[in-house]
Amino acid sequence: MKEKIHFIINSRSEKAKLILKKQIDTTSFWHNNFDVFMWESLYKGHALELTQKAISDKSSTIVACGGDGTINEVARYVIETDIPLGIVPLGSGNGLARHFKIPLHIKGALQVIKTRNIVQMNAGLANQNFFLCNTGVSFDTHFINAYQNIPSRGFFSYFKSLKAAFTSFSVQKHTLEFDSQKRVVTPFLLMICNTNQFGYDFSLTPNASVSDGKFEMIIYNKSSYWSLFKLFLDSRFDLNLSSSFLETLLVSEVTITSESDQTVIQYDGEINHSPTNELQVRLHPKNLGIIVPKQK
User: Fold this and answer.
1) pLDDT digit string (tens) for 264-275?
2) What is the value of pTM for the model shown?
3) Which helix (H) or strand (E) holds 221?
4) Nearest CA to 85 among 146, 42, 132, 41?
């Protein structure tokens, strides 16, 4: 009896979906070795339902085909199993795929899945919200909100979103508790990062590891328009990130208390309005098996 493989597909691009389905249907490997199921996610949260269905269907491999949001939805249930997760990046930023150097074209990503080269990665919980890449409570939430309201995608949409978010954001005080320390900070940017990518090759944590049991907490204190623009360029083009304004700390667990009564949180690019002013970030108790390219 063949093993089952489930492709859970979510993309704005009809062309990408057609190419993906054609690649699978016309490549003998998939149907010679698997019973293949291709399910399309049609609305927010649908990928969660489809993942549960694939797990119940005794899938041997589940492949998330979409952006970081889709991968997050699929992974939050897969992590509770021993099923490996494959990735076909069909999103805009594709931060997780870029971290693992998974090809951004469909044919190459499918070739990686064929190898079944699996690594174990850490995941995080932010007030029980699952994340793989990063979470934050500062300028990033305004930036993501602005980016989601721009219909186009790409590098210049990132820049437009930065400009729009900068005009609406004001810094606030946060109390950090981690490793028996307590600090009060008023940062422009406060994020907990698991991977070395935000998407589109932007990175403030180039040395981040997903398997060391630690997150990188970044605190950025400068808030002028010019400093933000410079940070934007430095993080995109792998230039020297100024340690004068950017502090990076390794943590496995941290509690962030904001001065406002409610906290806006982002996790893997999804916005969540918390009814409390406290954000507790910790490692997920289990690791996730991800299919990645073999190291050369």
Assistant:
1) 889 998 888 888
2) 0.90
3) none
4) 132
Which of 194, 207, 200, 195 minimizes the C-alpha distance to 67?
A: 200
Residue-level pLDDT at 177? 97
DSSP string, 25-42: HH-HHHHHHEEEEEEE--
Q: Are 46 and 69 in contact (CB under 8 A)?
A: no
Give the number of residues written for the chain: 296
The answer for 25, left when phi > 0, alpha when psi is -120 to 50, beta otherwise, is alpha
Decide: helix, strand or coil at residue 154.
coil
Assign 15 to helix, strand or coil.
helix
Positions of CATH 3.40.50.10330 in the chain: 3-116
∠ Cα 19 58 51 (to 5°): 55
CATH 3.40.50.1220 matches 129-283 = no
pLDDT in tens, 100-109: 999 999 999 9
Q: Amino acid identity of 270?
A: E
Q: Are 167 and 254 in contact (CB under 8 A)?
A: no
As assigned by CATH, the class of the 3-116 domain is: alpha beta
Q: Tens digits of per-residue pLDDT, 31-68?
A: 999 999 999 999 888 999 999 999 999 999 999 999 99
Closest of 9, 3, 148 to residue 73, by C-alpha: 9
Those residues with Cβ within 8 angstroms of residue 36's Cβ, 6 or more apart along the chain or in another chain:
5, 7, 24, 30
Instruction: Give the separation between CA 42 and CA 46, rounded to whole angstroms.
Output: 6
